[in-house]
Every structure is written in C-alpha cells, then in structure tokens.
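Let's inspect one such protein example.
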Amino acid sequence: MRKSKLARFALALLVSFSLTNCEKDTEDVFEGNQVSEQAKSAHVCIAKWDAPNEAKATSVKAKQWETGQTIRVKFLNGNNFVQSKVKQYAVEWEKHANLKFEWVSSTSNANIKIAFKEGQYSDVTGSWSYLGTDSNSHDHSMHFGWFNDNTTDSEFRRTTIHEFGHALGLIHEHQNPVAGINWDKDAVYSYYAGPPNNWSKAQVDNNLFRRYEANISNYSAYDPLSIMHYPIPAEHTLDRVAVGSNTNLSEIDKEFIGTIYPFPDTGDVCAGVAPYNSGRSYTTGDKVTYNGDLYQRTANGWNNLGPCPSNDPCDGVTAYSSARSYTTGDKVTYNGDLYQRTASGWNNLGPCGG
C-alpha cells in the first residue's frame, strides 16, 4: 500500500526502565471557557521511564517490534466481557500497522501479558503498559485499573487504544520534542501538588514539562488530537489553550504508525484493507473494500477511491454464449471456470477467483 509522507508524532525511545501508568482523562480539544469540568479534574498518565543522556537516535529501534510480526497477547485474569472489549479496540492498530495480534490462552507464552484490577492484581493501580518490546521482559506487562462490566464503550476504546500504543512503542504526545505547549508552570505545580496526585516539582517536571530530545526520538509536527496525548485544562496554559482526552486514533496517528510498521508496497491500493463490516464502527480516514472497490470514511459518508486490482483470472472475461462464434485464443467463463478456445475445442484453465 502506498505510504503517506504526512508529519509524524513521537515514538518510543531507548529506556533503561520503561513503564507508562495512565489514569482517567477527559475529551476533545478546547480553548478558554470551553474546557469542561472533567478536563479540569482529569487524572493523567504517569511516565515512569528513564532515558539515558547518551541514548542515540538508533536506539529507538530497540523498542520496535519486527515489521509484519505476529505479537502474542494473553490475559492473566478478567471476565469474558472485559477481555472481549480489549480485543475489540486493540485491533484498531492492525488497520494501520503491518502487525498482527494473536490472542493466546493464559497458560501460553506471550509477548504482551494483560491483567485487570482484581484477584492477585487488586492492589495494582492505574492503567499502564511497558513500551514496545520491553513487554517481553515482564510477566505482567499491561494493566487496566478501572475496566469492569459498567465501563462505557468510549472508555474501553480510549484506554485500550492508548495502552496498546505504548505497547507498540509510542510515548506521550505532549512530550514530543516540538510540542511547544505554553505551560503556566506555577499553576501546574500547584494543581499537581494536591490530591489525587500529590506530586513534587521534580515529578511534575518529568511527567509534564520534560520533552524528549530530537536525537533520541522519532517525532512529527505536534498533534493535539493524538490518542497518546495528555489532557490539559486551559488553566494550565498561559494562552488558555486546552487539550482533553482523545478517544480515537488521529489521522497523524494512523499515518505515522504505518511508517513505523509499513505494509509491503505491492502496488495494490487495497492490500491490507479489510472488507466492510456492518457490525463495526468506523472513524474518519478508515478504509474498507466493498464490491471490489476501495472506500475511505469521511465526515459525511464514504468516498470511493477506485477499484482494487484483481487477481481473478476471470476478471473482465464474459460468460460463454451459445449464440456467439469464437476463434482460437478467445476466453470465456462457464460454470465458475475459465475456458480458452483451441483449434479442436475448449481448454479448461481452472476456476475463477483470486
């Protein structure tokens, strides 16, 4: 599939210890008084990794999976409902990255190991994931701290996609080297010093104000719509620009992950694109195939991008007609097979279908 050259957002870097702990946030991008009460009281994701100063740009690849890899995922606990919701939304990344998730039993070997806040993990707080291939080194590599039978679909979607973004190697977007957020630092220090966070200035510096150096991260133009972004109340910026919790992959999210894990360039615009499924929900930018054509979701409906290349040897071949005369070399379809006229009759070239 043709790979976009759009701007890219921050990717994970080499870290000696890499864990991201996410608390609930809010929604959408706001300015000034449009910020909701939810955004003001949002809990946030806590970055708990250390990036060595001597890390180099090539170190980024240490956290990436192999392009085309099948990543094995298992649940350590949780009922069928919460497990099914995680599966439902985690695969959003598969639409845009050349990776696959294989869901295996709790007793099988796996790369990503997921627990919910219950049983032996009932004292584990927050929702978090280790970065990229660091997941291989931990028996409990991803955690969902508030999922239950009453969780909304929006929350399942937001948190699951976000945490699997970390598992694929993505850091928080507000730490993008070119984010340029105009923080009101005094207000931020004051806010996070209180409950439920109770952070020191050093913790605020690390979790919010720190931006990763360009030489140790891949990054794009700053994307406030990224699924990987912190919520930021307007009161925390000098220009009163706020960011809430994003619940879907942004266009840059989709394009960037495809450059990190690219699909093979086969010349087939429909390669890797799943057929339309009436039982699934789609967001702007999603692509599907339908009746042999490629479609892309827009704000108002579907845009037909044109026909998919066909591997069907019968494509364009008309059905046999007893009312027509044929010469040597002519091809027809008949009863689902492809035939070619010879000097003495018809040669069956095999079944139709690509």
User: Anything to note?
Assistant: The mean pLDDT is 78. Residues 127 and 206 are 19 Å apart (CA to CA). Helices lie at 37-40, 80-90, 153-167, 185-193, 201-209, 251-260.
